[in-house]
């Protein structure tokens, strides 16, 4: 049954992504700035215009994952690109109690373009993220003991492939 659900979700993502024209595809590994801990491995389809990105993202790792849609706004673009972003996403966690939910995440951070060749880039991302579960009405950010409970770090390595 789980395989049927995964196949349907992937088919839906493929159909939606083929309807829109995206400028680039981005593969990410780490504590994601779009899906947080729901997207340790993720793929994003990005449409860029000036200092704004609109994206669809799907990610996960076996027992947890998510699919979302959001926008990222850059203060300036270059080797060091500061930004803020907002993402609405659906998530799942398969453990003793299987859980699915809808959430929002907001990030403030910066991208560093480490390597750039032809139409590809390796980007290092650092920032802070906050996540909120709309259905349960609670903060789902994993906060540190002596830090704000509504913030957590985000850091990942991205491979961006432009068309």
Task: Chart the SSEs and their pairings.
Blueprint: H1 2-19, E1 24-31, E2 41-49, E3 52-61, E4 64-74, E5 80-93, E6 99-117, E7 120-133, E8 138-139, E9 152-162
Antiparallel strand pairs: 1-2, 1-9, 2-3, 3-4, 4-5, 5-6, 6-7, 7-8, 7-9
Report on this model:
The chain is mostly beta strands and 163 residues long. It has a single domain, classed as Porin. Helix content is 11%, strand content 60%. It has 1 helix and 9 strands. It has an 8-stranded antiparallel beta barrel. The model has no long low-confidence stretch (mean pLDDT 86).
CATH uppermost class:
Mainly Beta
* SSE pattern, N- to C-terminal: HEEEEEEEEE
- Range of helix content: 10-25%
Major β-sheet strand ordering: 1-2-3-4-5-6-7-9
